[in-house]
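Example record

One chain of 246 residues, shown exactly as stored in the release files.
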Amino acid sequence: MKRLINPLWAFLALLLFALPAMAQFETRAKAAYVLDYTTGTVLLSKDADLPLPPASMSKLMTLNMVFEALQDGRLQLDDRLPVSEHAMSYKGSTMFLNTSDRVRVEDLIRGVIVLSGNDATTVLAEALSPDGTEAGFARMMTERAKELGMTNSHFTNSNGWPQAGHRMSVHDLAILAERLIREFPTFYPLFSETEFLFDGRAPQNKSNRNPLLKLNIGADGLKTGHTQEAGYGLVGSAKQGDRRIV
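Predicted structure tokens for this chain:
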């Protein structure tokens, strides 16, 4: 989750086999929260309710909003959405879109999950916003987060670009991850896709950045994040047998 480092990724694997070791585990992460999804048992909690900059892990909330819109028919996977100048203005991770594109929702979702595209996230946000702006969508995100019990989350954009007041806690990220796994079984498998290439663009940048997917521990999601302000973060999930760890 927030500022996770390699030892904690290894710890996630360890938890699948050796719960007694949990009590002695310490992390240098600024905040961390590890949950046994199957039983609801909290395995590790450190400053779990502290609001922190979540970087691209914010995109999980945008995806939640998109999945809700798909479920209730406000959006279709084959809908083609325009790319605004505002969406193109973001630097950092990208799906390599152009303003001349009209992009399928399904491709945009993969662009968010696999490529962490700030442009793709913003295109989806503007499509669902009540006033067509990303700021309007961010207000929707904040309101919906509160309804879901994510009491330490406040959004000022859709993708986690550094802005004052844009914050989430690792506890809130865990609540959100649980919801994505539980409520959207049709879409959740997208989080385990290791590569996505849109229209043949930038084939050197097609890989999923989630390091857990490469560890052979049953990992199947969810999202990384990094900015200079936030540091490195990860919301991850792994399942072996009947046990899932988030």
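Notes: Residues 51 and 231 are 14 Å apart (CA to CA).
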